[in-house]
Design goal:
Helix content: 10-25%
CATH class of the largest domain: Mainly Beta
Structural class: alpha+beta
Distance between the termini: 76 Å
Keywords: Cell outer membrane, Membrane, Signal
Number of domains: 4
CATH topology of the largest domain: Neuraminidase
Radius of gyration: 33 Å
Protein name: OmpA family protein
Number of strands: 32
Strand content: 25-35%
CATH architecture of the largest domain: 6 Propeller
GO cellular component, one term: cell outer membrane
Pfam family, one: OmpA
CATH superfamily of the largest domain: TolB, C-terminal domain
Subcellular location: Cell outer membrane
Number of helices: 11
Length: 628
């Protein structure tokens, strides 16, 4: 597979600059010119006093290798004032690959402020918008590896009724002029278990791959590699089947020794060929072209235009069963290296916008050579994501079947169905909300889980809530033997009655009878203690039993420090208690908040009173008041 790495600005042009470099930096720069990025990283890391430029080179090397974590670390080691627009665009790309869309947008905008190409910034901003649109559409897709896999690098796949044809270099060292061979992964009930040689006698001493076969099965078009003037080039050659064997013929007429043509793909009728080429007149790198077969000859190729082609590389064109044109590119905004993209024709015959399908199609590494199997709804493509660019694997992608889990909610005492219940479902390990506070009218509802998770030991937490009842959290491990869940709720009044009320203290309040309880807090801690949360939880459960109660929350502080600061702290703590109770389910309209700062000191402990810290702590309190 051939694709061009985006150029890195490494300031290697001036001999004087090279002369002033340390020996390690010189060796690192030479390694970069050879494309040996791991060696370059080793040399740059040997430099003791690394400046921003050295860290930038290390970050760029990791970026090219697809190691985004290390790349981000070294970019972030550069001081903000020393970061340039290229640094910020790379960081934007890294955050885009990590699904951190907000950071990707902010970094791209900052890159624009520092002089980055406005078009490149806009492309990245548009990509973020598109990724958020496709995320929901892809959430039911499941990606798996087929059983038979290439042993090393792969030059693409082609689907036949009997299986998948793919080319591979193998896992061993290069020992001859021919490194790539064609293999067939035989299809047995959509399981690819065995592999055998395909077209083994076709050009036995030449690297071949990236094939397509005519609809009648008698003509094979394949990419043939050769060396010209020390440079690797490609052409599209033809082979015909005779007596069950493939026999090589000439290359296509539009091929030339002046440029490369590769990665052919035929339309379903065999009359249109899409391919990649770096012939003169393109937009840069490898572009996508189309040629038609007329009177037994292929027409002069036509470039698919700038809406598809970029200054980088567009390769492996594929027309899928829905007539969408899919291809791989490292020029359009994506997750990293080669991403899959697709486009469709408009009514006037022009190509529509190019769309990145997002995850799980794409990753920080390379994805290419996609095809589909309409009968099964499956798509197949190649990626090197799992081995970080060292080995290619063939993946299947299909919409996963779902199974529905039924939930029934009953009163624990009467066994009657409970109406108007709220429930939530959380996928615990991923902290992913599946259902968020939905209501069930007749005490019955359901939610979906992927079929593959049955009997897989995956934890879901189901929370059931009903006013007047104790909240219930159920741990559920999806099982083919347990697709129905029955939840029993206990009435709050059936628990030891007034266990919380017994702790409340009567308090004078104009024209109303009220009770209250204090909770205490630390001034410099953002959150409440576990003990304070337990009290708030019990207050909430008590309110559920008597929802007609109003709640007043008064915040008080000690007298240490500035008066206004203490007033602000008491308000913050009261508001935080209100926020906690609202999240639990208390009606926000039933809560009134007051803040008194140091106005009501309980024990005479003012600034100069000589009180202990424990005595000051008694004044840092929140009053939880029920208005009866």
């Amino acid at each position: 597979m051939i694709y061009k790495i985006k150029l890195l600005v490494l300031f290697l042009m001036l001999p004087a600059a090279l002369f002033s470099q340390s020996k390690f930096e010189k060796k690192g720069d030479k390694a970069i010119l050879k494309g040996d990025y791991p060696e370059a990283i080793i040399q740059f890391k040997n430099i003791k006093n690394k400046n921003a430029e050295v860290n930038r080179k290390i970050a760029e090397c990791y970026f090219v290798l697809g190691n985004y974590d290390q790349s981000e670390n070294f970019y972030n080691s550069i001081q903000e004032k020393e970061k340039n627009s290229a640094d910020l665009l790379h960081l934007s790309q890294i955050n885009l690959a990590n699904d951190n869309f907000t950071a990707a947008v902010l970094l791209a905008e900052r890159a624009g402020e520092l002089g980055a190409d406005p078009n490149e910034v806009q492309i990245r901003l548009d990509a973020v918008r598109k990724f958020t649109e496709v995320r929901k559409a892809n959430q039911d897709l499941k990606i798996t590896k087929i059983k038979v896999q290439p042993q090393g690098k792969c030059l693409g796949i082609f689907l036949l009724p009997e299986g998948i044809v793919y080319s591979e270099a193998g896992a061993g060292k290069i020992k001859s002029d021919k490194n790539y061979k064609l293999l067939l992964a035989a299809d047995e009930n959509s399981e690819y278990n065995e592999t055998k040689s395909f077209a083994g006698k076709l050009e036995p001493k030449t690297d071949i791959g990236a094939i397509c076969i005519s609809p009648d099965g008698n003509t094979l078009y394949y990419t043939r590699w050769y060396i010209r003037k020390g440079k690797q080039q490609m052409e599209i050659a033809i082979a015909e089947k005779k007596n069950g064997e493939w026999r090589s013929k000439e290359s296509l007429a539009f091929c030339s020794r002046k440029y490369s043509c590769c990665y052919p793909f035929l339309s379903p009728d065999g009359k249109t060929m899409y391919f990649s080429s770096d012939m003169e007149g393109g937009y840069g790198g490898m572009d996508l072209y189309v040629s038609k077969q007329e009177n037994g000859k292929w027409t002069e190729p036509q470039n698919l235009g700038k809406s598809i082609n970029t200054a980088q590389n567009e390769i492996y064109p594929r027309v899928l069963s829905n007539n969408q044109l899919w291809f791989s590119s490292d020029g359009h905004a994506g997750y990293g290296k080669l991403d899959l993209f697709f486009t469709s024709r408009n009514e006037d015959g022009s190509w529509g916008p190019v769309i990145n399908p997002g995850e799980p199609y794409n990753s920080a590494f390379s994805e290419y050579s996609i095809q589909d199997i309409p009968e099964t709804g499956m798509q197949i493509f190649v990626s090197d994501r799992e081995d970080r660019g060292l080995r290619d694997r063939i993946y299947e992608l299909k919409k996963e079947d779902k199974k529905r889990v039924q939930i029934f909610v009953k009163d624990a005492h009467s066994n009657d169905i409970i109406k108007n219940v709220k429930f939530s479902v959380l996928k615990a390990l991923e902290n992913k909300v599946i259902v968020a506070g939905e209501g069930m009218i007749e005490g019955e509802t359901s939610f979906e889980i992927p079929e593959s998770e049955l009997d897989g030991g995956i934890l879901y937490e189901i929370t059931v809530q009903k006013s007047g009842y104790m909240d219930r959290v159920i741990e559920y491990y999806p099982s083919s033997q347990k697709m129905n869940i029955e939840v029993s709720l206990d009435r709050i009044s059936e628990k030891p009655k007034f266990s919380f009320v017994s702790e409340l203290k009567p308090m004078a309040y104009p024209k109303k009878k009220i009770t209250f309880k204090n909770i205490y807090f630390e001034k410099n801690e953002d959150d409440f203690s576990d003990e304070a949360k337990k009290i708030l939880d019990r207050l909430y459960r008590f309110w559920k039993e008597f929802p007609e109660l109003g709640i007043k929350i008064n915040g008080h502080s000690d007298s240490k420090g500035l008066e206004q600061m203490n007033l602000d702290i008491s308000l913050q703590k009261a508001e935080k208690a209100k926020e906690y109770l609202v999240k639990k389910g208390v009606d926000v309209s039933e809560i009134e908040v007051g803040a008194w700062g140091e106005e009501f000191i309980l024990n005479g402990c003012f600034d100069d009173s000589g009180c202990s810290e424990n005595e000051h702590h008694e004044n840092r309190r929140i009053e939880l008041i029920f208005v009866l």
